[in-house]
Design brief:
alpha/beta, Rossmann fold, 7-stranded mixed sheet, 7 strands, 33% helix, globular, binds guanosine-5'-triphosphate, binds magnesium ion, metal-binding, metal ion binding, G_ENGB_dom, cell division, cell cycle
């Protein structure tokens, strides 16, 4: 699946702009700068497919990428960016809620959590939103190359603990590094085998 063509489809700012719901899709959610765009690039093996950047809040649209004609990968704008204007945040939260609740073909949300930080309060908001929308979500820990073994183990434990109160949580997490390639094959297999 990942060996085939991958294309940027479009950036969406309203529900009316979503492509036809004619295939299964997975989305990538997470705090601004957590590594969503980098992960999509690592998964697809295209360096600059999704624009990754040091500037938080870089991805402001819902970006659709097509894996052949059988799957969409959906890059969601990051949340928790302190300097984003209030009106923009409100508009984005409304769109996110509509998307999560209304997108029939959304099969799983991957929620990215920085391995250095674990689950933070801003993450809890989206996890609860996913519970309410009854969208199964799976945590993907990012930037694993940036932490030592002890921090890694401690933050994995913190995440597993936090997931216990979320009924929509998938009980297994994936630890990744887009930089070093850790966990990327595992995630590819997960995306490819979702039905
Ligand atoms: P927004 O679009 O702003 O929400 O950010 P994002 O979640 O898409 O993050 P992005 O992929 O743009 O990455 C943010 C920064 O983290 C960039 O400087 C990346 O190079 C860096 N980064 C992402 N993944 C990794 C990783 O696995 N390891 C390391 N060391 N750096 C990473
Ligand atoms: Mg991004």
């Amino acid at each position: 699946l990942f060996a085939g063509p991958v294309d940027f489809v479009k950036g969406v700012v309203a529900m009316s702009g979503l492509p036809p719901a004619d295939r299964l899709e997975v989305c990538f959610a997470g705090r601004s700068n957590v590594g969503k765009s980098s992960l999509i690039n690592a998964l697809t093996g295209r360096k600059n497919l999704a624009r990754a950047s040091n500037t938080p809040g870089r991805t402001q649209e819902i970006n659709y990428f097509a894996l052949g004609d059988s799957r969409y990968l959906v890059d969601l704008p990051g949340y928790g960016y302190a300097e984003a204007p209030v009106a923009i945040v409100a508009k984005w939260q409304a769109l996110l809620k509509q998307y999560l609740q209304g997108r029939q073909t959304l099969r799983r949300a991957f929620v990215l959590i920085d391995t250095r930080h674990g689950v933070k309060e801003v993450d809890e908001e989206i996890l609860s939103m996913l519970d309410r929308a009854a969208v199964t979500f799976q945590v993907v820990m990012t930037k694993a190359d940036k932490v030592n073994r002890a921090t890694r183990e401690a933050n994995i434990a913190q995440v597993m603990q936090a997931l216990q109160k979320h009924p929509a949580a998938y009980p297994e997490i994936v630890v990744t590094s887009s930089e070093k390639g850790e966990g990327i094959e595992t995630l590819r297999a997960l995306v490819a085998t979702l039905q």
